[in-house]
């Protein structure tokens, strides 16, 4: 009402009033949200009086709060705003900068000394930034209000980097040596020196608050830094030690001491053959091709070797490798299992074709003479080879055609010598023949066989034996030959009581037998006392031949098959109406299912492989949904692959004559980000076919004769074996075998217009703890070689071996008056 009596303002006064109101309105809209909404208390005397009152009426001045000491920037800014001074509008960037620096504006909590708390604001800003980065799927440029955070964040990040750098410098590892293990600054600063697959799927950001980073460190896996004594990185050797302990514990649960007590070797069923009687069964080649051995780090004299049939070279003193000639191309081979800690002689059963140029049709059934060879390698240890010369123990003559596969019963078939039976049993061997039959043999110890047959002519190595059982597909109502074709692969049930045996046939059928069955529909006793067994379960697994079949070692309900239809199928034997997973890839030749993993390692033919993808792959069964892991590239067909549960390692032999081993990572987690995959694989040896003239080796590989006849090839060529020093892997990437292997993987050429005399057809790791570091391989030349991977030995494996020997001594080495272990062992129930 008082303003109504006031004189009307002039035009200049009106304009000034409008501009003043506009300024006050802008100040109100641009005021920081952190400023207090209520007016501040009165300012004490000595701090100046407010000025610039509005013309429409006096405005009560806003007072800053009473505080001791110097005012902060936020207080001064609020004071100027309350006084209505002509000062620039506070920029949100400045406010953010003040908040980032920890200076608390009006109303924020302060310390007892009057100083604002900085840590909470800083941690809150960093935490909000981390949440924004995690929730934003696509990176977007920061807004102007966020740009002011960068200097503060960079300062915090540099602080964390310098702290991390000091911690790494105090660590015992060499930073230069482990430079490739440290993540870049762009990646998260977790710096966890273990496999990328071992790291969590979502890692912590570099600028994460220390509280959250400490929590993440608790849930992450332990770090695996530095080098192992063998030269490999600890991250490579950690899964090896883990698998050794796991294998020992699983075998204690799933392996048996004594199985199939009725199937023991009897003396009257074994007959030693004379030379004339054994001649049709023996391989045709009496002398091996010329070959030369170059061992890494050892100066060789360059002498060429040619050994006679069934003879061997003396084991090397340092490298422990042995070589022997079997007489023909090797196509089937298997180690004989023995109990852990038995320290018994190790045996290898194998089959070779009768001649180097012999071919076999896989379409129809055919029989003929064949010889199964059992070779004694002596007592093999991890750090010492056989003291005696390797030799042929005996051979088993058969008339069922060529052999495509053979498998020993995993456990319960070995008994110590000197038991109360006439001939102590060495093992139960199942053999797949080309006439469509699977034959079971009960093999005795060679010493027991020689003792029982000492009245016959000495020096006879070939024997005719009556088999224990013959397994056929069909039924007792069908007396004709099987219509399923030849049998190409076998697999025993890995868990006790090992009563089931599975086989894959030419037409894609998989048959499973119950070996101790008493059913009249599945078991028929023959006039000679042997058994004829029929399967209790058959199903069509593939559209073509089943090339490989393998049982899951962790659970006997699961089976994997690989066929010529290029499919790999995983089966649950409780639901056979469809496979668990079916993967169509390349033409698979053999699969290996290691104990701790949910998938198989596959060897393949390169005829269907894409460029750059030929080689060895690990394929998940489908439960975890992992993509295929590329274990090792190969330029030619990989004929055989074998895995060692003790060493977590696979070995493969290919058509180029190279035997490669690869230490697998922990495949229980996603293997997409595996570090250093090329450092995990290494060559065991490489076989090269080189021309040889009358005066000795000459020329290069280009001068090889273009022929596929062995008689012409053997007179003009020789094989050079280049062995790798496997005692240590120190500085391995820079050594000559590794450089040669990488060169072969990139530039190797394969000549298919000549006989591949250097080709490797079968590779097998020893399943026994006493010789778990040994690997045998053989191929087209008929030369079988055994190598010891000493460098992969671990302290866990050595400790397990000592414990197993003590356990074996207490179980089997009883006083003479005590009963045999076979007699007091619990027998499986029917």
From TrEMBL:
Pfam families attached to this UniProt entry: WD40
WD repeat ranges per the UniProt record: 539-574
**Locations listed in the record:** Nucleus
Extract the SMART domains matched here. WD40 (SM00320)
Q: Which GO terms describe its cellular component?
A: nucleus; transcription factor TFIIIC complex
Give the residue ranges for region: Disordered: 1-75, 96-117, 136-218
Q: Where on the tree of life does the source sit, at the highest rank?
A: Eukaryota
Q: Which InterPro entries match?
A: GTF3C_component, WD40/YVTN_repeat-like_dom_sf, WD40_repeat_CS, WD40_repeat_dom_sf, WD40_rpt
Which terms are listed as keywords in the entry?
A: Nucleus, Phosphoprotein, Repeat, Transcription, WD repeat
List the biased-composition ranges (Basic residues): 19-33
Q: Which GO terms describe its biological process?
A: transcription by RNA polymerase III
Physiological role: Required for RNA polymerase III-mediated transcription. Component of TFIIIC that initiates transcription complex assembly on tRNA and is required for transcription of 5S rRNA and other stable nuclear and cytoplasmic RNAs. May play a direct role in stabilizing interactions of TFIIIC2 with TFIIIC1.
- Subunit structure of this chain's protein: Part of the TFIIIC subcomplex TFIIIC2, consisting of six subunits, GTF3C1, GTF3C2, GTF3C3, GTF3C4, GTF3C5 and GTF3C6.
Supply the name of the protein.
Answer: General transcription factor 3C polypeptide 2
